[in-house]
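=== RUN LOG ===
request id: a7f3
mode: sequence -> structure
chains: 1
length: 569
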Amino acid sequence: MFIKVTQTAGRRYAQLVESYRNEEGKPRQRTICTLGRLDSGAEVDHLIAALQKAKGQSPRTASLEGLRFLASKDVGDVWALHQLWLDLGFEDLSRSWKSSKSEIEVLACLRAMVFNRLCDPSSKLGVLRWLETVALPVGFGFADGLPEHHHLLRAMDVVDDHSEALGVRLATLMRPLIDQELSVVFYDLTTVGVCGETVLEDDVRSYGMSKSGLVARQFVLSLVQTAEGLPISHEVHPGNTAETKTLLPMIEGLLKRYPLKRIILIADRGLLSMNNLDEIEQLQETLKIRGQDVQIDYIMAVPAARHGDFAEDLQALQQKQAPDQAWCSETKWSGKRMVVAHDPQASRRRTEKRNKSIKELEDLAEKWSGKLDAQDVGAKKGKGRPMSDSGAKARFYHAVKDASLAHIIKVDLKGDLFSYEIDEDRKKYLEMLDGKLLLVTNTELKASEVVSRYKSLADIERGFKVLKSDIEIGPVYHRLPRRIRAHALVCFMALILYRVMRMRLHAANRGESPTTLLAQFKRIQQQTVQTENGQSLNGITEINPAQKSLFNALELKAPSPNNLLTPSL
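=== RESULT ===
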């Protein structure tokens, strides 16, 4: 008899085998019994220990002398994201491209790129380096080895080729998380910088005004999220797209993917136009004709500084209120309901800041005027080059523009002498607007609730901040439009996981952010050691109570050594 080692499903087993001759006298082998797995601490180790005990010997233990630590890989963060991915049913996304004949593991590549944005955001080449530092869960994919760079790029192409089906499948999976009867959705856009100067057909990289106020090559990303902060839709637009033109297609796309009964759309002032409001009402009528019972309401901020027809109404409302008291009221604008809220402290801060900037510019203008007058009367030349009226006008105009006060301080650029004037009427109008929030709505909500709903829009701004800081969506180095769209989808899915983690942490009354949580989980590592006799052992660092508590808050199970792929050395 002898010991035979067999392998099944990636595990090694020891069997007791007997040699014998059959009736024809030919040598054969038969298995007497299976002794158990050969993994460290498995059945074979227990059998050896029991036999030693039966012989009156102490069980042998590996000497710590010569113990070598061969590898250490991060476990906890990838494990938690993978469990959340499975919990949300995202494995089902592969049905979107099931007809694709691609031989690469598209789902595993997509999952790796999404997780990388949350764990260690980097380039697609950086994803490959990151994969070498983490221990992947059993069933993650990459059974034939880690992917190469071209595998990730081809996976992105497959994802973009099936983007419509993928969007529908993703919406289906997220429906249980959304209130279908009354859905409050927030809509906003941001700009994402790109690199490269080449120009391609249907390029989404265009020069436009970025959110920082500078003209840059970029693309525009629109985002829709629920009142709970869950992202449910996104779109990539060319960098020079006007915000107002994206609103109606967004609503139609949302109704196509989600069986909503009512939408309360909340958007910032950049999306407001009278055409948009009229088109929303026309869409409402079209839905009724189609037999779709969907109510579309909106709450949108009004860019009051761009409209001069608010002065009389605002003044009339303000005269009815107590000075230095916060108030909320409403009036009519172009036949539509307009809610006005006033914050006296914000008003005071804004007015003081503007007056300070105006005073600084007036002092600068007085200084330059004095220097010009002194030069005209032949006074002794001071330090520096002589100043001319044209130079003073140009420099002062740029100073006014940089302070965003060109609508108040008017520099006379056509005159021969350096001069300017302050538009007092405009200044008074802006002071009256200070601290006021103007919202146009067709809802029947109380004025205070309309304001409260709109102020929740700040949460979508935090979503953009997460995209740009934690997930690092930009700058984007991809050249092809399809790769840019796929990159945006990867970041959007990363934001979904981030926000679901945040929702579960809030539900568990935990104060940690998802970023802090993943940093805690990252400390859980897979260790590989080798004993003096050449035996390799794998295990994970002990999960402390704080980490166990976080897994419970996320409603996820903690990792164990048997749930992880054995590292290749």
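=== NOTES ===
The first strand starts at residue 2 and ends at 8.
The mean pLDDT is 89.
=== END ===
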